[in-house]
């Protein structure tokens, strides 16, 4: 069985490929992020790189318009089913790295408890406004001027287990906002609440019509109660580099090098830079714009255009890879921009695996995202006592 000196896992945040069998539990029957985005465009999507690797060969209920089936795909392909009880980024990423979340995290359809709000106000010496389920981009349009004028904190949530804090950078400096979010993380961790992520959402602009989120977002995630694949890699001397929000989601555990990114293009450029340099280890990158800029905002046009931009960068990445590199492309959940509401959607996610000189194979439907982490461990010859089944042998035999 061939093994590789360097493994790259690229997470296309929210790029689902069809409703999971348990989608009815989430009200997500019929969701299909990739399928519906492809149907939106006359002629479908133009993704020549992902198509060549086998994206169109993945079996799905909604055809991927414009993404043809390849008779001899360059990569192996299939799809992953999520077993975690939620559909948030923390569920998806942790499960990819071998730790499914089996107990539902708390959600707050009626806003956060008043006791917690009072703790936040007392610590920050700032007033909390909003405190309800709300679209993040709409929150800064509707409440941004009030927040900026009085120096308050816009707190809101979604259908996921998240507490988000938005504030204008001129009224609440970024480092102060981070300090407040760290306090909230600590306060929640010492309470009877279980919240997946506290997210700092600084924004900029002169008035509500020009307010936009800045590039200083930061996630403060709960800490995994179990060792993830990243912990095991670090313990065995394998260097791990996290790109994008990966470091935040795993609370820096197991990650030696963390690279913040300002966009998906920046994230791809960082991956390309590393692959173009000599080295070994594990590169774990998240491209969040699909989710935050287009999925949640139900911007189908923008979603498809972002797919095309990333596909173009992916061509550059593939051409730079050596015989010692293994690339795994997948996602952490769905976020169908044609679907109702503004929340994530419970979906299968695609998995495409590429290495030079290895013919493509159909690895079918995998029963958990954790098969990705198990494959990474087997590649580096680390025993896997946890979750997931490696597909390394399937693609290299």
Automatic annotation (TrEMBL):
Its main location: cytoplasm. GO terms for molecular function: phosphopentomutase activity. It is an enzyme of class 5 (isomerase). Pathway: Carbohydrate degradation; 2-deoxy-D-ribose 1-phosphate degradation; D-glyceraldehyde 3-phosphate and acetaldehyde from 2-deoxy-alpha-D-ribose 1-phosphate: step 1/2. The keyword Cell membrane does not apply. Isomerase that catalyzes the conversion of deoxy-ribose 1-phosphate (dRib-1-P) and ribose 1-phosphate (Rib-1-P) to deoxy-ribose 5-phosphate (dRib-5-P) and ribose 5-phosphate (Rib-5-P), respectively. PANTHER family: PHOSPHOPENTOMUTASE. This is Phosphopentomutase.
